[in-house]
Amino acid sequence: MNAVLYLFGGGGAFFVGVALVLAGIAIFAVQRSRVVATLLAVVGLILIAFSAIPLPYWLYGLAGGVSVLWLAAERSGGRLRSRRGWLRDAGAGIWLAAVAVELPHHILPAVPPTGDRPTLHVIGDSLAAGTGSKQEETWPRRLARVHGIEVVDLSRVGATTISALGQAEKLPADGGVVLIEIGGNDLLGPTSAADFDRDLGELLARVCRPGRAVLMVELPLPPPCNGFGLAQRRRAAEHGVALIPRRVLMGVLTADDTTTDGLHLTPAGHGRMADALWDAIRPAYGH
Questions:
Q1: Based on the domain organization, do 78 and 124 belong to the same domain?
Q2: Do residue 64 and residue 205 come from a single domain?
Q3: Domain check: are 30 and 169 in the same one?
Q4: Cβ of 79: how many Cβ atoms within 10 Å?
């Protein structure tokens, strides 16, 4: 079950789905089994839809429309069937373009060094704050202990993007590294994608300052919550924020013995989260 959750939550289902669609196109092109080709394409389209990858809606509409026309042309006669050749080419080209757009979002961002041992400030919710116990070694505390860096953990249990504005007010005027892990309570609560977009824009406007490296953990998305991912990517690009791929967080949440309920981290989970996030932020420390 964890592998399935990771496949969808981490975004891998999108690439598997595209591969199945392309396989269906190839099988039709060499005049092999129509049943197998159709099945592969349909399953691929379903995987793509449920992956909740936040690509632009117009791209989904274009790719989906061409795919439906292509399948109809392959299985019908008359004028539509005569167009199946260019519909195959168009479908393959559009889905390959979609992969090219999405693939960079699954690679750890390049973060430039920000100086000699900058302070790391963490803005987050209970995924970072843990239970609130001073004895609990959360992943911000583990980062400080293991890597010898100064960490100021501003995270709060139950924080949302709008309440995180209070955390942002405690940041220094400029400089340093800020790691943002926020949005899960918005996604699972009553916040709409439009409100999340507005609140995130205000938060990043306060956080982003000259000489400061800002990173944000991308949210794993259930369908049909693509709007939250679109907002994250749009606001990150607008403010020059480095997005840590959703597969990083999903890899922690779906590993063995890392959560108590699928969302809140165990001690092992905090350790795994610290290791995963250090891979993303260590270039800021010249490593």
A1: no
A2: no
A3: no
A4: 8
Taking the C-alpha atoms of residue 176 and residue 139, their distance in angstroms, rounded to an integer, is 18
Token representation of residue 67: 């795919």
Q: Quick one: which H or E segment has residue 215?
A: strand 213-217
For residue 122, give the H/E element and its range.
Answer: strand 120-124
Whichever domain contains 220, its CATH number is 3.40.50.1110
Residue 46 domain boundaries: 2-106
Looking at the structure, tell me whether residues 214 and 161 fall in a common domain. Answer: yes
Please identify every stretch of the chain with a pLDDT value under 70, giving residue numbers as ranges. 1, 78, 287
Name the pTM for this structure: 0.91
pLDDT in tens, 50-107: 999 999 999 999 999 999 999 999 877 767 777 888 999 999 999 999 999 999 999 9
Q: What is the pLDDT of residues 264-283, one digit of tens each?
A: 899 999 999 999 999 999 98
Segments in 54-170 forming alpha helices (H): 57-74, 78-82, 84-102, 126-129, 139-147, 164-168
- Is the backbone of residue 158 left (phi > 0), alpha (psi -120 to 50) or beta? left
Q: Name 85's Cβ contacts closer than 8 Å, sequence gap at least 6.
A: none
In this structure, the number of other CB atoms found within 10 A of the CB of residue 256 comes to 9
End-to-end CA distance of the chain: 36
